[in-house]
Specification:
- This protein is mostly helical and 159 residues long.
- It has one domain (2-7, 14-157).
- Helix content is 72%, strand content 0%.
- α3 packs antiparallel against α4 and α4 (66-95) runs antiparallel to α7.
- The longest helix is centred in the middle third of the chain and has 30 residues, at 66-95.
- It is elongated, with a radius of gyration of 17 Å.
């Protein structure tokens, strides 16, 4: 709905809303990551990391181009898939009688259940944007459209 509003109704005012969206994206990434790092509960960590991932989604919207909108959509879909997989692994571990609420609960998971440990590793790598996982693919296109339009030259260093 936000993309529809920005693309169809406010496209002529893109210069005006890009500045506001840029500030929101930066604050979302900073606050979300700081809040996620401070968590010891896995579910809360995943929930707070969603706030920072919304900032990356906003980067695609900042470009006000088709490539940016497409990359933001792909990023959103891949992130939703990885988040559902992460919560699914936690749910499966809990159903097996294994507490999986805190980070300390995952110690020794490789010895108890190597398959779940490997899946959780891939999911966490993907959510962190480490290549060649799924979520690392769209984070680069989400960053590049704003860089091409000289919105964030310093942000290009991350990409």
């Amino acid at each position: 709905m936000v993309m529809r509003l920005l693309v169809q109704a406010l496209f002529v005012l893109a210069v005006d809303w890009q500045g506001m969206l840029m500030i929101m994206a930066v604050l979302s990434m900073i606050i979300g990551n700081i809040a996620a790092i401070a968590q010891s509960n896995i579910k809360r960590m995943l929930a707070y990391s969603t706030i920072s991932h919304i900032g990356f989604l906003m980067l695609g919207l900042l470009s006000a181009s088709l490539n940016g909108y497409a990359s933001a959509t792909f990023y959103m879909l891949s992130y939703v898939l990885m988040t559902l997989a992460g919560f699914g692994i936690i749910l499966l571990l809990t159903r097996q009688g294994f507490e999986a609420d805190r980070l300390e609960d995952l110690k020794g998971l490789n010895q108890r259940s190597p398959w779940f440990a490997f899946l959780m590793l891939i999911i966490m790598f993907s959510m962190a944007g480490i290549p060649p996982t799924l979520a690392s693919t769209p984070s680069s296109p989400c960053c590049k459209p704003p860089c091409r339009q000289a919105l964030w030259c310093w942000w290009c260093l991350r990409c």
